[in-house]
Amino acid sequence: MKSQTKEEQERILKLNETLLYDIGYEHVNNINDETDKLLEEYCDIEVPESLNVWFDEYQIIQNKKMKAANFRRRSLLFGKRAAILLIAMTILAATVTMSVDAYRIKFFNMIIDKTKEYSAVNLNEEMTIEYLNELPENWSTFYYPTVLPEDYLFESALESNGTKYIVFTNSKMDEIYFVQGLITADFQLDSEYVDVFNISVKDQEGLLIIKEDSNIISWHDNDQSFYIQGNIEKSVLLDMAESILKNK
Amino acid sequence: MIAFLLIIDDEKTRTKLEDIYIHYHKDLFVTSYSILKDYQEAEDVVQKMILKLHNNLDKISEIKCKKTRAYLVTIVRNLSYDAYNRKKGIIFMPLDEKYNLGVEDEISLDEYVINNENSKEMATYLSDLHRPYADVIMLKFYHDLTIPEIANILNITENNVSVRINRALKALKNIFVERGVSDEKSN
Q: Given a cut of 70, is residue B66 above it in pLDDT?
């Protein structure tokens, strides 16, 4: 027997399928013709009403089952979606919380900044000029702080033996003394019952003296000595010291 | 909203089965009655057929067509014959032949295709074919059902389906030979 190639086998298979498909098609026509003949033959036969009733009841039961099954399926789907949504919301909430947290940090930072501003107010040019105008007219050369603690305003200024004094007060009448003089000036520092620390102001060595009721910073540059005393935080005192400028 | 969608979804399914019932319930009942000659038994068979159909609704793509009608009638007719045989005490022994789907053992009909382009002629050949054989050929090659699916709707074993297909092909070939179709080819 001659062996068939793969192509020949495939051709035979397709031809068989085609023929059998056509046979099936013709059989469908035959069945329809036979059924039509049966309907003619049994034209007097009526389908029992009980069959219709059974079908209606069957449909109701099946619909209930289908509804229950669909509801379970959709509930499961809904549950999955709800879970996804919940996760998404959790992530969103976490993001918002983090954002809020970040905002809170920023807010607190702002508060801290504000607090710092309250503690040490950076005076703008206008404010500086405003209190500089109140300084004695005969002061040709002097230094002045551009940072003041919150609520402190210029109170008075005087000069004695080449040493200039500027006094700032707040609403509680607490005072800050800013003293400047030639390096030869002799500042009397009360060192009893105090803590003394070496510090650096404007890259110059200085002293920080912590007293019970006030803090003092003293430093000097090439030709001037400076002295600030007040009942304020040492950090604010340092900010104030760092802000010292010379008039033009 | 979800409840509304659930209802819509159910309506689609309900409509399909209902449409089938509305269109074909008389065809099915009459077919069964023509075999059983008993209202109650015919009704039982149609009910059984509906139950069977419910799990095979996806096999029906179009409701109002000859193909679907033949499919439904074939099911109900086989169920009716089963009921008839049970009533008469006729028990068919399961066929134990194996239907081998291997290419070497397949029954080739290709030589007959060339000479049988006329479908009407094909229809006359089928009248000579044992109806259960024609049914399995139709279900297998026209409806494209699998052997388990055919076994399910005809209420027979898968092996019986395979044997029936094999015998149907042999019978078909014999009909072609008897009618001289192969001779036409050689002429």
A: yes
